[in-house]
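2024-03-11 09:14:02 INFO worker-7 job=invfold-0412 stage=load source=structure_tokens
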């Protein structure tokens, strides 16, 4: 069952198209993440759901309630949508205590004091902040402020939870902890959630499904495993998992469909996946942790030579930048390599072949 349905949503600012026919279905109880770089339209989509942005066209439906329909001239006010929105900045009132901040939306709704007090206690208990109820925001850590912001949103029992990069202001250690308790809380409450981030690790670890956005469009929707293992195009392959991209030309197509491609420097590779036609320009995508540094090219297929441009020590491993076929390839390895020229093994079942991106006119 679809808890949230978005159909052909468009948003235009002047001459700029911010959203281009965005359509999306979020299932009941699902944790769906809008993932993409800055300016791709993910926050605009979230704010359109919340009623803080007015789309140019399209429809938004929550359950059986039409929140927005340009054709029918329907646009519910934000407070009438029963959506809970947590901002990146948390937006806590500095002059109010934790308890007063969480109680604020209930006071606006005219909830009786006895009911209000119980709901506030319940919400603070959910996020483990009840012992700090009398503190002010400036007396809390970033992680604690985030929990208060979430409690303030959950206290009025919204149908839909909307989160706009809520972990981005936390340091790396707190972010990892917050990621865990946020996912556990969402699963426990089974609240339908739309989460916005540019952080691929957050998206992969938190989500039931991910919608990858680029330039105002959704370019792929799938489970975290599907998005990572079977990206639809070079953008998704690079943005989710940081793939190396090598421009090439398809030389031949084997009986089983594997393609032999020629890199810009003339070296040959084979790729098992892809449907690019013989003679066509293409791109190979392969992740840094799938490339191996080997001692020789005699015993393995798909071995090519490159020149080491840079070496980085990253604690648990080394990362090398290697020039190959007119491109730069990142390679991760446990061992340290001193040679300036290396052999690289690119397993053909790890080489993802795509059509070359269109050149803008």
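2024-03-11 09:14:09 INFO worker-7 stage=emit residues=361
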């Amino acid at each position: 069952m679809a808890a949230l349905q978005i159909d052909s949503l468009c948003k235009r600012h002047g001459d700029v198209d911010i959203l281009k026919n965005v359509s999306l279905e979020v299932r009941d109880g699902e944790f769906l993440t809008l993932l993409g770089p800055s300016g791709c339209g993910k926050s605009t989509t979230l704010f359109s759901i919340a009623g803080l942005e007015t789309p140019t066209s399209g429809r938004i439906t929550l359950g059986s309630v039409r929140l927005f329909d340009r054709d029918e001239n329907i646009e519910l006010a934000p407070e009438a949508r029963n959506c809970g929105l947590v901002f990146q900045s948390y937006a806590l009132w500095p002059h109010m205590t934790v308890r007063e901040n969480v109680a604020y939306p209930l006071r606006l709704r005219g909830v009786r004091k006895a009911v209000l007090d119980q709901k506030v206690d319940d919400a603070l208990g959910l996020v483990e902040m009840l012992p700090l109820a009398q503190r002010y925001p400036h007396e809390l850590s970033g992680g604690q402020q985030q929990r208060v912001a979430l409690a303030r949103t959950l206290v009025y029992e919204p149908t839909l939870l909307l989160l706009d990069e809520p972990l981005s202001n936390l340091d790396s250690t707190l972010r990892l902890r917050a990621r865990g308790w946020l996912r556990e809380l969402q699963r426990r409450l089974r609240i339908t959630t739309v989460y916005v981030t540019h952080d691929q690790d957050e998206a992969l670890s938190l989500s039931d499904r991910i919608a990858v956005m680029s330039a105002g469009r959704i370019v792929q929707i799938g489970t975290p495993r599907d998005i990572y293992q079977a990206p639809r195009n070079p953008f998704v392959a690079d943005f989710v998992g940081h793939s190396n991209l090598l421009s090439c030309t398809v030389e031949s197509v084997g009986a089983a469909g594997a393609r032999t491609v020629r890199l810009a420097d003339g070296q040959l590779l084979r790729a098992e996946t892809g449907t690019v036609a013989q003679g066509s320009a293409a791109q190979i995508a392969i992740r840094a942790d799938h490339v191996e540094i080997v001692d020789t090219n005699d015993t393995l297929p798909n071995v090519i030579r490159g020149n080491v441009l840079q070496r980085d020590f990253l604690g648990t491993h080394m990362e090398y930048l290697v020039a190959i076929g007119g491109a730069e390839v990142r390679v991760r390895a446990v061992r340290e390599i001193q040679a300036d020229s290396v052999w690289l093994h690119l397993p053909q079942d790890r080489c993802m072949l795509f059509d070359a991106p269109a050149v803008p006119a």
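2024-03-11 09:14:09 INFO worker-7 stage=report msg="The chain has two domains: 2-229, 242-355."
2024-03-11 09:14:10 INFO worker-7 job finished
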